[in-house]
## 1
Amino acid sequence: MQQSGSPHRPDAGDADGLTVGQASARLGVTVRALHHWDEIGLARPSLRTAAGYRLYTAGDLERLHRIVVYREVGLGLDRIRAVLDDSTADVPGALRAQRAQVAERIERLRQLSDGLDRMIDAHERGLLLTVEQQAAIFGPQWDPDWAAQARQRYGDTAQWRQYAERSASRGPEEWQAITDAVAGFDGALGDAMDAGVTPGSPEANQLVERHREVFASYFPLTRQMQVCLGRMFEADPGFAAHYDGIRTGLATWFRQIVDASARAHGIDPDTATWQ
Amino acid sequence: MQQSGSPHRPDAGDADGLTVGQASARLGVTVRALHHWDEIGLARPSLRTAAGYRLYTAGDLERLHRIVVYREVGLGLDRIRAVLDDSTADVPGALRAQRAQVAERIERLRQLSDGLDRMIDAHERGLLLTVEQQAAIFGPQWDPDWAAQARQRYGDTAQWRQYAERSASRGPEEWQAITDAVAGFDGALGDAMDAGVTPGSPEANQLVERHREVFASYFPLTRQMQVCLGRMFEADPGFAAHYDGIRTGLATWFRQIVDASARAHGIDPDTATWQ
DNA sequence: GCTTGACCCTCACGGTGCGTGAGGCAGGAG
DNA sequence: CTCCTGCCTCACGCACCGTGAGGGTCAAGC
């Protein structure tokens, strides 16, 4: 904090000039800024004391004040210099250019704010679609409450974060593509079970790989995580109902082909953890 | 411009990883950014070739992609690092904080834009008051067209610029104070002429000084400029009518006291120029 | 094997407008 | 003579890379 006006030097009326501290107090800028403007030659004091103190005369203060005014509307020091020193400078033109730049920056920031809104929504709700869109994409038996429940359960996991980040950049068409892929996979799964594909067979392992690829739309799935998922699908009533609705026993069969594939990759499915 | 995919290295499917150029093309960021993120440890490639080439694996790309997403909403690299590395980080909280910051910056830019509007108006119109305000402040015989005429005449001079800059930061009350000062000065001028004050007398010289001070509200006035002004007030029909309306012959008398004061300061009023 | 061209590497400066010390005079008060 | 405040001059730091400089690497074509 600058003390404006020491008892022995009343700072006002000293005809020879003001020191940096006095000038800074009067102009509402920092001493460092005055030093800087002096360094770059934008506003140098006309006088110095014998000891080297800067002394700003009335004319200097005049110029400083103009600098402050233009700085307040966001002009860069270079342009201020041009405006002050070049008597042919097009001041209104420079101001208008600046205003255009500012408008542009505002627009960018607004888009950025929109993006942030989407990200926040994605993290908090998990799905950015309207209820109608959700019904159209996920089918009529879709429960719009699913995302909220999922957030309740998984909101603090790294996987939820990745899911949320991706959701933020997905529109309805992309969701449609994903559900199509999932539906296609579910169908293939049921067909394979019907066809008598056995766990551990190349066909079954290929399906397991396909599942990981499809699932990667939500977040990357390690084999270990896939094992856990397979067991959850079998154990969780909701998920089990979904798979058993496709073919009776499909949830269990899926768990079996995942386990077999994991074993083939050196993972013990009975000790696999979510990582 | 990066060529994505040279004929001999199809850039897709190389299981061991992508080079910087390939990764940059895929992510839409520059190679330099990848280098930078590596330097600061935000995203380092898991692999290097024997020659030292960076190789980004699928997992690396995963992380890079998350970085890009968060960078697009304006998060700083430090905060991105926190969001990615600190599993206890409050992501929605960070996003909301960012949104608040963005809103703040938008607000500042809006005010800045308003300031620019005022400045532009000041440079182009000279007066920022409504016609009613002008009438209230300058009196009923004020011609609202004065500012436009003045800009026609003086718009390209340094003095007009200073006038415009100051106008931009003046409200109605300040204009009122200025017109009050001017009116007070005009009255004192008439009284002095009535009282028989003679050009060159201390009283007359004091009035000349007071005129310079009062006039400084518009722009700083040198003594030379004041001489020119005195002659213009006498010669210009509009200005002459104003002063002679106060006291007959006041325009001429004012020119005389200015001339005398100038002579006392070593200026020849007959060769004085506007500088 | 040599050239060519496209990539890749590691420094390292620069830009914007000062903030923030560090170390040391200058000048008045007690 | 000491103390305190204000002033001085360096000089680094910041956020995020852009932009060379100077020099290897890799695959292809001759």
Note: The longest strand of chain B covers residues 47-48.
## 2
Amino acid sequence: MHPPHSRKEAILQTATMFFSEKGYQDTSMSEIAKITGVADGTIFYHFKTKSELFLAVLKNFKEGIIRELEAFQNMAVFNTGLDMVEGTVSFYFSLADRMEDRFLLLHRHYPYKLAMKNPDCREHLEEIYTCFIDLFERAILKGQKDGSIREVHSKKQALLLFTLVDGLVRLGTYNLYKAGPLYSDLIDSCRCMLTNKQQETKPTFINPQNKRAHSL
Amino acid sequence: MHPPHSRKEAILQTATMFFSEKGYQDTSMSEIAKITGVADGTIFYHFKTKSELFLAVLKNFKEGIIRELEAFQNMAVFNTGLDMVEGTVSFYFSLADRMEDRFLLLHRHYPYKLAMKNPDCREHLEEIYTCFIDLFERAILKGQKDGSIREVHSKKQALLLFTLVDGLVRLGTYNLYKAGPLYSDLIDSCRCMLTNKQQETKPTFINPQNKRAHSL
DNA sequence: AATAAAACTGACTGTGTAGTCAGTCAGTCA
DNA sequence: TGACTGACTGACTACACAGTCAGTTTTATT
């Protein structure tokens, strides 16, 4: 299933890069072929159409994400659910930073448009989102068991949390505002959303992103 | 300056509709011409290039938004800053609902890409964002004066708030999750982010959006 | 070595599109 | 009436692109 350096794999890599950085429409198949170093026809031998290639890219991305998430879950241990929420936020930021290019895929409109017609596409997107949101929800549920998080609708709150964090990542890629300096305020806000008692701001973990953009 | 029903105006309307609903790339100039009921050349008589037409659409949208914001500010009166935050959130939702099609413009990637090369485009986008964020900030500052909102960095918190609310709107247009049912949880979370004391959930205002999508 | 299957090629096709331009037409003013 | 102007037209150009296919090369099998 994984012949180490097949042409097919190489095409997939190039396509991922192009679809992420330039978007679906602005990427031509010939371009992908040229950069990969194969003939135009070769792409169509491996992937019937352009949108099938896109689906393959998305699937590949999804699998990568899932692998990362599993690694995170196996590695990270948290005392409280609240800690786990913070850890998850931090993890999402670092992932978005590390896979910055590929995250752009999710922050374009094309996949969601395709998802309306193509059930496979929709399924990939849903799986990706579900993974992240479930992770947040698990943290919330844990926190509700150990008392570090107040009574909230775990699923809904998880979705809100995810929306907030992802929105901030997106803001960074839009290049209008710097998202980095908001990190500690974000963590603080998350804590407030989830707890009853008043808390002092703790020192924060990481502080990713450093694009040129508006300062606050 | 405003000859009531000029062709130019008509083209602008059609273009707004198409760029919003189908995106920049997927809209052809001939299409706009055909639907508007003018010859292909007419568009290029009024707008030199496709991207100049897009800029005009964006500018028009910006002006519409600003008008709406001013109307809101002149009309709405709030007892406390916290109320004003809630009112602003509610306003943003209803605006996004009422101008659903045009908001899609902001939720595509193209404008932000164009903004990297084109300063005019960037300025329009910045102005739009600034308007909204300033509105949130004004609410926060008011709340800090009257004691309904705790000590937070007003600009940063305003940005976080906006990100959260806009992210939720976007989620609705993506059609993967229903954003509507989250409205009361959103308001609750906002209140928690901004206040010190514990509060009971109050009855909420409106509850927009009703797309077919995942339930929670 | 012979054969077959799989991988690969690149010229070619058909279509769609942004932008051009020579020219039409209705209105205005002298 | 006739010269002039600005709005408008639609055929046309030049090109880019997804996808095809007949044919070539590589690899695996016997």
Note: Residues 1-48 of chain A form a domain with the Arc Repressor Mutant, subunit A fold (CATH 1.10.10.60).
